[in-house]
Amino acid sequence: xxxxxxxxxxxxxxxxxxxxxxxxxxxxxxxxxxxxxxxxxxxxxxxxxxxxxxxxxxxxxxxxxxxxxxxxxxxxxxxxxxxxxxxxxxxxxxxxxxxxxxxxxxxxxxxxxxxxxxxxxxxxxxxxxxxxxxxxxxxxxxxxxxxxxx
Length: 150
Fold this sequence. Notes:
8 helices; about 75% helix
């Protein structure tokens, strides 16, 4: 009887370890989060990401952010940018910021800026500042050229 208890305990620990291993390689929670957020990605793609040494949360969370902001980004392009040494979160945030400021910034340009070593989000914010400054300057010069009211 005593040896049977130990066998059952060993099988239980083995099953828990196998379950942990399955949930490590197949991030079901992340898949469900993406599904609920409107990002279409399969469990198999998440497993392949992990095998390619791409952290699935980085790609999926940024895909969710882009989708919620109204942008259409490609999962493969985000993975390629990560594998090239790029900062995916910075690029996605810059694309969202540029889109909200009605600036034309496409993914290829943003990733090129990022891979060149520049902070693409800072570049977008500086461009937004310059656009606001030029609009203020136009308004100021328009006010100065008007004749004074009597």
